[in-house]
Amino acid sequence: MTETADDMVMARATGWLAQGGLRPTRQRLALASLLVGDGADRHVTAESLYAASISGEEKVSLATVYNTLRAFCEAGIMQEVVVDGSKSYFDTRMDDHPHFYWEDDGRLTDAPADQLEITRLPDAPEGAEIARVDVVIRLRRS
Predict the structure, then answer these.
(1) What's 17's domain CATH number?
(2) Do the beta carbons of residue 135 and residue 116 sit within 8 Å?
(3) What is the model's pTM?
(4) Which residues constitute the domain of residue 68?
(5) What is the pLDDT along the chain (142 residues), one digit of tens a residue?
(6) DSSP state of 118
(7) How many structural domains are present in the chain?
(8) Helices 5-19 and 26-36, interaxial angle, to 10°?
(9) How many other β-carbons are positioned within 10 Å of the β-carbon of residue 16?
C-alpha cells in the first residue's frame, strides 16, 4: 500500500504531538498538520495560524488556536518568541538559535547561529538560574 501525502502529513503531526505527550485531538491534529506536516520549521503568530486553518476541514476558533499553541509550548514541542513585549511568535524549531525580526513586514526568521557569539552573560541573581537566552535582531530595509 502506497502512503499518500495526506498520510505523511498526519503521521508527522501525530508523531510531533506524541513527542510532547499530547493526546491527538482533532483540533490539535489539524493545527499540528499546518505547523509540521511538511517537515519544515515554522514561525507563526496565533492569528496567522488561525488564518491558515480557516481553509481546513477542522474549524477552530482563534481562542482554541491560542490555547493550543500554549499547550504545545508547555509540552516542549514549540517555543514562544516574544517581540516588542506584545507580539508573540511560535517557533517549531526547538534548538537554541537567534532570530531576525523584519520590522517592515512583521516577519520572524531564523538567523545563522554559527555567526552569533555571546562571550559573557551577567550572573543570575541569587536563587535564580539562566534558563535560556533569546536573541532577536531587529532589521529594517535600507
Answers:
(1) 1.10.10.10
(2) yes
(3) 0.88
(4) 5-139
(5) 557 888 899 999 999 999 999 999 999 999 999 999 999 999 999 999 999 999 877 889 999 999 999 999 999 999 999 997 778 999 999 998 999 999 999 999 999 999 999 999 999 999 999 988 889 999 999 8
(6) -
(7) 1
(8) 110
(9) 23
